[in-house]
Design brief:
The complex is a heterotrimer of chains A (268), B (326) and C (323). In chain A, α1 packs across α4, α4 packs parallel to α8 and α10 runs parallel beside α11. Chain A is 74% helix and 0% strand. Chain A is mainly α and 268 residues long. With 326 residues, chain B is an alpha/beta fold. In chain B, α3 runs parallel beside α6 and α4 crosses α6. The longest helix of chain B has 18 residues. Chain C has 323 residues and is an all-alpha fold. In chain C, 77% of the residues lie in helices and 0% in strands. Classes of the chains: A mainly alpha (268), B alpha/beta (326), C mainly alpha (323). At the B-C interface, α2 and α6 of B face α10 and α11 of C.
Chain lengths: 268, 326, 323
């Protein structure tokens, strides 16, 4: 499996380069110098990935799109992980009514398919800015992490070192934070890495149906949407963002799997 | 007594990718007569289970039999038999009972159905009759209330009952030879005795031969007609039970007897056999027991001793014991 | 069994209700202009605004709105679609069929082909075909559903022009065409969306079945069955497939949300007139009652599916049944 891990790392490096260095070396993703002459050009020396039907350079859009997509995904995962971990820790750490209610809360969160909640939120709020989109994607993804953390917390409460800490007189909240929480970090890290793949896909999917990033902003999903109209004439407009999307999600998935193998060797 | 099963030069090897093949069973030969109870005794890792699996050819896919290996059941050559021939003798002429009754029974299938499966595999009879046979077999193996138990799932039965069910399944085809691989190891001591008693009764009633594979010398006494002692893939001693218990000839067998705790010896420590059983890829040259043997001589290190008779119905593979130490 | 069923059913109902309340409350508690859908591009005079507000009740407090909504829901009324001006339930009824068609066919294929392939891959682990299958599943897993769909559209719809790429049927087909022609037309429109849905969702049953079957194939009872002389076919069926079935059933509950997500994107891609594309359209036009109505329906479906999976699990695994 080492081969797959190396592939994942390679893809990660490529994506990072694209997102960080790409926009620097590419031109503007918005400029449309000459609509008549420069629209729908195939890849060439001047335009590495060609141009789209609005004469915009595809490579520039791809690179800026990388920056957008990865930024949105990272923020979303950070939000989801933070909220989910806090809820899960509280739910697992407290028995009685509060614990029961929190457990019910997590169940309800899991019962609502993420895409539905996202669409409902977008319908209610209206057009979202890039940051708002990232927050909304993040806020719909906390329940998976919460369930994971709750499970781990429940398990670790019976671990000998935790019982020892309690026996020494430590307060439950302190035990929760200092002793149990670090034990949950490994599976949380794995889930967060895999969650990045989900977030990238959600943003791309939403942009693909026109509900994602606000329009002039480049996004891989949006690029694929625009490619639909001219698919017969300029298929490269589909291939490049598709390849980028596959590369980015594969990188996250492969690295997440590699992390799981390293940090949690017993899980299948 | 007619010879039922004849095994000559049984050799089981496992090819490996970048190393010499593993040979956990190396040149094993023995015979079993009709109606006899033969015990195959040895520690874990000596190859006795593989030997047992070889008879009905149930070895793992990558196992290879030696080229001059002979396995003959009556007139049938099992070593080179086709799949359909093997399927027709499995359950019907040779039956097997495995060590762990919990995992050897399909957990989502009722026990009666599993017994009936064994019956219908070799006889064209209807479901009702197969079920009746299953109930009859359950009675024969001593399970109370068989007409209810026949519909039970394995997890609803105790360990002893499951082992009896395994026996019922094995007997369904009316086999001539029953191979029992550690049939009592997973059971409580009291249940062990019952199981062995049952095995003996059934054997006598049906005139069935039994190959009893075990690491426990204790269950062999008083039940087996003959005993084969196995060490590191080879048979080192072969004798009638009486002869073996009276005068064990091979140093390994002697060591086994000496290490059994006895009620009479009140104060002395147990005398184990020094060292451990070597793994199959590190077997010593010559006599494989020589590194642990208290009486080994130079010949033992270089030449492999053949099985030689040293008395009536008593063979041993040892240079020292057969008096050929030079 | 009945006692357990009642308890589990009540639990599902409670969770579904809480989820519904959460969803509706979320919508009504958020900032954002709820009348935007109705107003569209136009601006309105204060009187018009007041009339609209009164009509749609957008200025009332949260709790009364929630109470009203759920009272109406209990009577089967999901409100009025703001953009279409007809009851939400009518819209849902119209769009339910195509989603059921696509969804049930996907389910059928995933859980027959997926299980068969998974079992086969476990029984023949070293063949090149099994390794090829493994590679294909990894690739299928890595490529997002709408990307795969777009690639299929490009290949079969445009490059080769074999299959239609949008819609449910050919609107230009004459009304009096024979049922054979109609059936063929439907089939041609079904192929690409169905293939995309299957590609997007088959990985889960396939991998699970392969893992379960691998454990089972090495199981001791298989060797015991061989020792009785049972035929290879009976072994594969009774002793491999049937015991491996138990863990498969549980993943049905996990698989359903995947189906829902797939439906939204893939129905949108193929202009398939189902619930998934409906909810996306309604979101674009900010028709909140419609979005919420469709959303609630899908949530209920997922809960039902999860309950069904739990029931099936108890039926399939005998160890669960006995008290």
């Amino acid at each position: 499996m080492r081969g797959y891990t190396r592939l994942g790392l390679g893809l990660l490096v490529a994506m990072a380069l694209l997102a960080v260095v790409g926009p620097w070396i590419a031109g503007s993703p918005y400029s449309q110098p000459d609509l008549l002459r420069d629209a729908l050009l195939p890849p060439s020396g001047a335009h590495w990935f060609g141009t789209d039907q609005f004469a915009r350079d595809v490579f520039a859009r791809l690179a800026w799109g990388a920056r957008n997509s990865l930024a949105v995904a990272t923020i979303a995962v950070a939000v989801a992980t933070t909220v989910g971990a806090m809820v899960g820790l509280a739910a697992g750490g407290r028995d009685g009514i509060l614990g029961g209610m929190l457990r019910r809360l997590i169940d309800v969160g899991l019962a609502l398919p993420r895409i539905i909640v996202l669409l409902v939120l977008i319908a209610a709020i209206g057009r979202l800015s890039t940051l708002q989109l990232a927050l909304v994607i993040g806020l719909t993804g906390w329940s998976g992490i919460a369930r994971l953390v709750r499970g781990e917390t429940l398990r670790l409460r019976h671990a000998p070192y935790v019982i020892a800490a309690r026996a020494l007189g430590a307060r439950p909240a302190r035990v929760l934070w200092r002793d149990i929480f670090p034990g949950t970090l490994a599976p949380v890290l794995v889930a967060a890495t895999l969650g990045i793949a989900d977030a990238i896909l959600l943003e791309a999917g939403l942009s693909f149906i026109g509900l994602g990033l606000p329009l002039p902003e480049p996004s891989w999903g949006g690029m694929m949407l625009e490619a639909r109209e001219v698919l017969g004439q300029a298929p490269w407009l589909l291939f490049f963002p598709a390849a980028a999307l596959v590369a980015a999600t594969s990188a996250a998935t492969l690295l997440g799997d590699a992390l799981r193998r390293t940090l949690q060797p017993d899980s299948r | 007594m007619t010879t039922l099963l004849e095994v000559q030069n049984l050799r089981i090897s496992f090819p490996r990718r970048d190393a010499a093949p593993l040979i956990p069973v190396d040149d094993v030969s023995f015979q079993i007569a009709a109606g006899e109870l033969v015990a195959l005794v040895g520690e874990s890792g000596c190859g006795k289970t593989l030997t047992g699996l070889a008879m009905p050819r149930l070895l793992p896919v990558n196992a290879r039999l030696g080229t001059d290996t002979v396995i003959r059941l009556g007139e049938t050559d099992l070593a080179h038999a086709s799949d359909s021939t093997l399927r027709s003798i499995r359950g019907r002429r040779i039956a097997m009972v495995f060590q762990d009754p919990m995992s050897s029974l399909n957990p989502v299938m009722r026990v009666g159905a599993q017994i009936a499966e064994a019956v219908t595999a070799h006889a064209r009879i209807g479901r009702a009759e197969a079920r009746a046979r299953a109930i009859a077999l359950l009675t024969e193996v001593g399970i109370a209330d068989p007409s209810t138990r026949v519909d039970a799932y394995p997890h609803q039965l105790s360990g002893g009952m499951r082992q009896r069910v395994m026996l019922a399944i094995a007997l369904a085809g009316e086999p001539e030879l029953l191979i029992a691989d550690e049939p009592t190891t997973a059971l409580d001591v009291t249940v062990q005795a019952q199981m062995l008693e049952l095995l003996d009764t059934l054997r006598q009633k049906r005139g069935m031969a039994v190959l009893l594979i075990t690491h426990d010398l204790g269950i062999v006494a008083g039940r087996a007609d003959r005993v084969l002692v196995m060490y590191a893939g080879r048979i080192v001693e072969c004798a009638t039970t009486a002869a073996l218990f009276a005068a064990p000839a091979h140093p390994y067998t002697q060591g086994l007897f000496a290490s059994i705790p006895r009620l009479e010896n009140t104060a002395s420590r147990l005398t184990p056999i020094p060292g451990t059983v070597p793994p199959p890829d590190q077997w010593p040259s010559g006599c494989r027991f020589h590194p642990r043997c208290p009486v080994a001589v130079s010949r033992c290190r270089t030449e492999r001793p053949p099985l030689e008779p040293i008395g009536a119905g008593h063979d041993v593979a040892c240079w020292v014991a057969s008096g050929a130490a030079q | 069994m009945t006692g357990w069923l009642l308890r589990r059913g009540a639990d599902a109902l409670l969770t579904a209700l809480l989820a519904a309340v959460a969803l509706v409350a979320l919508v009504h508690a958020l900032p954002g202009d709820p009348l935007a859908a109705v107003l569209g591009e136009h601006s309105a005079t204060p009187e018009q605004l007041a009339a609209l507000t009164a009509r749609w009740g957008t200025n009332r407090a949260l709790l009364p709105k929630l109470a009203d909504y759920f009272t109406a829901l209990a009577h089967g009324d999901l409100g009025f679609s703001m953009t279409r001006e007809i009851p939400v339930t009518s819209v849902l009824r119209e769009r339910l069929g195509p989603t059921l068609l696509l969804g049930s066919l996907t389910l059928l294929i995933d859980f027959t082909l997926g299980l068969a392939l998974g079992l086969w891959a476990a029984l023949h682990p070293d063949s090149w075909r099994a390794r090829a299958l493994g590679a294909v599943t990894i690739v299928g897993y890595a490529i997002p559903s709408f990307v795969a769909g777009m690639l299929l559209v490009w290949l079969f719809g445009i490059r080769l022009a074999w299959l239609p790429v949008a819609g449910f049927r050919d609107v230009l087909l004459p009304i009096d065409s024979g049922s054979g022609a109609v059936f063929l037309d439907r089939l041609r429109h079904l192929i690409l969306p169905l293939t995309t849905m299957v590609l997007a969702t088959i990985a889960v049953p396939l991998r699970q079945q392969r893992a379960a079957a691998l454990t089972v194939v090495a199981a001791p009872w298989v060797r015991a069955a061989r020792a009785r002389g049972v035929s290879p076919a009976a072994i594969a069926w009774r002793h491999c497939w049937r015991p491996a079935l138990t863990p498969i059933v549980t993943l049905f509950g996990l698989w359903l949300p995947m189906l829902v997500a797939g439906a939204v994107f893939i129905e949108g891609l193929f202009s398939w007139p189902g619930l998934g594309s409906l909810i996306a359209e309604a979101t674009t036009t900010r028709d909140v009652p419609l979005v919420v109505g469709a959303g609630l329906l899908l949530v209920a479906a997922v809960q039902l599916g999860s309950l069904l999976a739990d029931v099936l699990y108890r039926v399939v695994d005998p160890a669960q049944r006995t008290p």
